[in-house]
């Protein structure tokens, strides 16, 4: 059983003691897929083999991830009989473009991958978004596999089927909903990340708690030190709780017609900041600031007390996330908000909290109130 507000009732997991793997399924009828949460790549070849796809595979990764994980992933796949190719992207949100997708198409054709072949995204959210869009559109759709290597992508972007690229300065303006066939999470890959990127990933993790599960927020607050120490048990628990929360929403609203919009808590302001600052801040950092903005909006609307805003800020600070952006160009961020995909008929739709663990969707028509919040965030 799942519910949008209050506590999330977690779907059952299958725990494989032999390989220390947690298996969870996203139930979308014929588009259902397994998520494997583990601490190594030992079972990768077997997991992909179980999909019964063709034997040609192309891994798409970026220059940052390539040296850490490509060789082992290729080895595991080849051990299971796959013919493996690789394409390496230039890292960074600024390279999340149609040109990057074009480069993938050229390699897919050069290596003669067909409809039975698989495209594997090995990396963070940018790699996953670009690769997923290429997989969705090459030959009208080939098999797509996610191997997320950042906390942000393990917590959020690898689950749910959102793919796409930025276009003409607008984030994710071109894309498609395209579900993977498999998500394989090795939680130890985040050990290779700078601490700042780990913190940025935690923004999406705690976002799920703010939306649906206050106890999960308390768990994160209590275990912050263990997260930064890369405690395997804590990291696997975070991953399974995240895929359960996000999965429960995606299963009910795959293409963001209604319910799935709750996952955008903090994103309306966050995306605007991200774009207005030319992506100099990490996505999770912008989302953290945006979530503070959402709680402040609720405070000014007398939905929740100031003490809750302070509590939220304290949790984010403990996870080493920003809660404001001093000197922010308020007018530029305000203007950018109206390019958001959630704006309809020039009206701003926001996901706002009633309390920690419960949110609702509303239209904000008072632009003065929104500017007041943005000025608060700029202090």
TrEMBL record:
<dbReference type="GO" id="GO:0046872">
    <property type="term" value="F:metal ion binding"/>
</dbReference>
<dbReference type="GO" id="GO:0005737">
    <property type="term" value="C:cytoplasm"/>
</dbReference>
<feature type="domain" description="3-dehydroquinate synthase C-terminal">
    <location>
        <begin position="201"/>
        <end position="343"/>
    </location>
</feature>
<dbReference type="InterPro" id="IPR050071">
    <property type="entry name" value="Dehydroquinate_synthase"/>
</dbReference>
<protein>
    <recommendedName>
        <fullName>3-dehydroquinate synthase</fullName>
        <ecNumber>4.2.3.4</ecNumber>
    </recommendedName>
</protein>
<dbReference type="GO" id="GO:0000166">
    <property type="term" value="F:nucleotide binding"/>
</dbReference>
<keyword id="KW-0028">Amino-acid biosynthesis</keyword>
<keyword id="KW-0963">Cytoplasm</keyword>
<feature type="domain" description="3-dehydroquinate synthase N-terminal">
    <location>
        <begin position="88"/>
        <end position="199"/>
    </location>
</feature>
<comment type="pathway">
    <text>Metabolic intermediate biosynthesis; chorismate biosynthesis; chorismate from D-erythrose 4-phosphate and phosphoenolpyruvate: step 2/7.</text>
</comment>
<feature type="binding site">
    <location>
        <begin position="149"/>
        <end position="150"/>
    </location>
    <ligand>
        <name>NAD(+)</name>
    </ligand>
</feature>
<feature type="binding site">
    <location>
        <position position="162"/>
    </location>
    <ligand>
        <name>NAD(+)</name>
    </ligand>
</feature>
<dbReference type="InterPro" id="IPR030963">
    <property type="entry name" value="DHQ_synth_fam"/>
</dbReference>
<keyword id="KW-0862">Zinc</keyword>
<keyword id="KW-0170">Cobalt</keyword>
<feature type="binding site">
    <location>
        <position position="204"/>
    </location>
    <ligand>
        <name>Zn(2+)</name>
    </ligand>
</feature>
<comment type="function">
    <text>Catalyzes the conversion of 3-deoxy-D-arabino-heptulosonate 7-phosphate (DAHP) to dehydroquinate (DHQ).</text>
</comment>
<keyword id="KW-0520">NAD</keyword>
<keyword id="KW-0456">Lyase</keyword>
<feature type="binding site">
    <location>
        <begin position="189"/>
        <end position="192"/>
    </location>
    <ligand>
        <name>NAD(+)</name>
    </ligand>
</feature>
<dbReference type="GO" id="GO:0009423">
    <property type="term" value="P:chorismate biosynthetic process"/>
</dbReference>
<feature type="binding site">
    <location>
        <position position="171"/>
    </location>
    <ligand>
        <name>NAD(+)</name>
    </ligand>
</feature>
<dbReference type="Pfam" id="PF24621">
    <property type="entry name" value="DHQS_C"/>
</dbReference>
<dbReference type="InterPro" id="IPR016037">
    <property type="entry name" value="DHQ_synth_AroB"/>
</dbReference>
<dbReference type="InterPro" id="IPR056179">
    <property type="entry name" value="DHQS_C"/>
</dbReference>
<keyword id="KW-0479">Metal-binding</keyword>
<comment type="similarity">
    <text>Belongs to the sugar phosphate cyclases superfamily. Dehydroquinate synthase family.</text>
</comment>
<dbReference type="InterPro" id="IPR030960">
    <property type="entry name" value="DHQS/DOIS_N"/>
</dbReference>
<dbReference type="GO" id="GO:0003856">
    <property type="term" value="F:3-dehydroquinate synthase activity"/>
</dbReference>
<feature type="binding site">
    <location>
        <begin position="125"/>
        <end position="129"/>
    </location>
    <ligand>
        <name>NAD(+)</name>
    </ligand>
</feature>
<keyword id="KW-0547">Nucleotide-binding</keyword>
<dbReference type="GO" id="GO:0009073">
    <property type="term" value="P:aromatic amino acid family biosynthetic process"/>
</dbReference>
<feature type="binding site">
    <location>
        <position position="267"/>
    </location>
    <ligand>
        <name>Zn(2+)</name>
    </ligand>
</feature>
<dbReference type="Pfam" id="PF01761">
    <property type="entry name" value="DHQ_synthase"/>
</dbReference>
<keyword id="KW-0057">Aromatic amino acid biosynthesis</keyword>
<feature type="binding site">
    <location>
        <position position="283"/>
    </location>
    <ligand>
        <name>Zn(2+)</name>
    </ligand>
</feature>
<dbReference type="GO" id="GO:0008652">
    <property type="term" value="P:amino acid biosynthetic process"/>
</dbReference>
């Amino acid at each position: 059983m799942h519910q949008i507000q209050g506590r999330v009732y977690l779907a059952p997991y299958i725990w494989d003691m032999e390989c220390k793997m947690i298996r969870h399924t996203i139930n979308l009828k014929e588009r259902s897929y397994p998520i494997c949460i583990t601490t190594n790549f030992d079972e990768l070849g077997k997991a992909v083999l179980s999909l019964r796809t063709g034997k040609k595979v192309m891994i798409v990764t970026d220059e940052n991830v390539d040296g850490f994980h490509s060789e082992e992933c290729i080895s595991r796949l080849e051990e299971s009989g796959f013919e493996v190719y690789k394409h390496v992207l230039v890292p960074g949100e600024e390279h999340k473009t149609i040109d990057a997708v074009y480069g993938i198409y050229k390699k897919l054709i050069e290596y003669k991958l067909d409809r039975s072949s698989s495209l594997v995204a090995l990396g963070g959210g940018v790699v996953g978004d670009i690769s997923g869009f290429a997989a969705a559109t090459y030959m009208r759709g080939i098999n797509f596999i996610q191997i997320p290597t950042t906390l942000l992508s393990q917590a959020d972007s690898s689950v749910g089927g959102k793919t796409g690229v930025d276009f003409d300065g607008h984030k994710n303006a071109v894309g498609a909903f395209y579900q993977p066939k498999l998500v394989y999470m090795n939680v130890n890959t985040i050990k290779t990340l700078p601490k700042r990127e780990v913190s940025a990933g935690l923004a999406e993790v705690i976002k799920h708690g703010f939306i649906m599960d206050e106890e999960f927020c308390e768990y994160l607050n209590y275990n912050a030190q263990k997260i930064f120490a890369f405690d395997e048990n804590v990291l696997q628990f975070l991953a399974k709780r995240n895929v359960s929360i996000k999965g429960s929403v995606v299963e009910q609203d795959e293409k963001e017609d209604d319910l799935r919009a709750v996952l955008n808590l903090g994103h309306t302001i966050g995306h605007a900041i991200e774009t207005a600052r030319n992506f100099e801040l990490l996505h999770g950092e912008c989302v953290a600031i945006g979530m503070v903005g959402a709680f402040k909006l609720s405070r000014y609307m007398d939905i929740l007390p100031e003490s809750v805003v302070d509590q939220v800020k304290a949790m984010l600070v403990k996870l080493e996330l920003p809660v404001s952006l001093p000197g922010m160009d308020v007018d530029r961020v305000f203007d950018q908000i109206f390019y958001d995909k959630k704006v309809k008929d020039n009206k701003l739709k926001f996901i706002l909290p009633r309390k920690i663990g419960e949110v609702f969707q509303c239209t904000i028509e008072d632009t003065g109130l929104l500017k007041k919040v943005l000025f608060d965030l700029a202090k």
